[in-house]
Amino acid sequence: MAISQNIATRLLLLTTLLSLFLSLTISTSDPEELVNELLFLQSQSKTGVIHLDDHSISRFLTSTKTPRPYSLLIFFDAKQLHDKHELHLQDLHREFFLVASSFILNNPDKSSTSYAKLFFCDIEFKESQSSFSLFGVNSLPHIRLVVPNVKNPKESDAMDQGDFSRMAESMSDFVESRTKLSVGPIHRPPILSRSQLGFLFAVLLIWTPFMVKKVLTGQTLLHDPKIWLGGAVFVYFFSVSGAMHNIIRKMPMFLADRNDPNKLIFFYQGSGMQLGAEGFAIGFLYTIVGLLLAFVTHVLVMVKNVTAQRLVMVVSLVVSFWAVNKVIYLDNWKTGYGVHTFWPSSWK
Q1: Could you tell me the pTM of the whole model?
Q2: Range of weakest confidence among 15-24, 149-158, 165-174
Q3: Which of 56, 71, 229, 338 is the right S-S partner for 52, CB 3.0 to 4.6 Å?
Q4: Residue 171 and residue 154: Cα distance in Å, rounded?
Q5: Beta bridge partners of 120
Q6: Beta pairing, strands 118-124 & 157-158
Q7: 3-state secondary structure of 256
Q8: CB of 187 within 8 A of CB of 167?
Q9: Which first-to-last residue range defines the signal peptide (predicted)?
């Protein structure tokens, strides 16, 4: 009786271990099941980007034997850093969505080929701190490409920080250089929808006859010299204030002081970064000098009173000297470079 109970216990233990082994084998070694699951998750996402967490990282990466039948391009995000405008996390995340949707759109009906074996994913810090440590991610923005043969996530390819400036195009180049796959052209959403374009076209048709009449009679704004003068001043200010730099780099007007969150920083000391406010301040000083020079050379010369001419000239020179001195001072404070005067040799 004791022997029968011992055999029964051994058989029960053996059956349990066998079932556990089979369940683990099916869950971790069935590549088609994992690919189909990733394809399903991709189809459920509006942008084509699969959201991962610690559990899914374990399922699709660490618990799966290599070589895996797919590669993962992972965007690491942290919502608590979205207010750090200098990181451009939200902008880069949107560009990542564009690359993912463009890749899927440019390569349709290829679920059985290698094109379907690259999946775009994102992961958030608060939800998956263990995964951040697993990849060794300690700074953002960060993008990793995990190819099929990678066993240790820390050995996966990381996108260079300096390549993020080109946004979606640089991400596309990174994918193509590492996977030999073609992402194709980036499909950006149109600025205006079809309904908005139709409305604008209808307004243009209605407005055209009235505009033609105004042009023929010379009664448009383009015939007003003041408009051209204002436009010239605006172009000058736009050019010297670094506004184009602010638009391209999406620079903030100011930053919050890290030591005192209630304090705002309008001038950033250091040559590696320029805030919008300091660019506009320098542009304003340049514009003052330019307007004074234009006034002196085009308006003041028509004043017949010599005393008034001299007084206005002295004031213009003093204000211009003050403005230029401020520009030189701020440039020296920001970059450390000084501007030295050179006197004629005959004066020495």
Answers
A1: 0.54
A2: 15-24
A3: 56
A4: 19
A5: 49, 73
A6: unpaired
A7: strand
A8: no
A9: 1-27
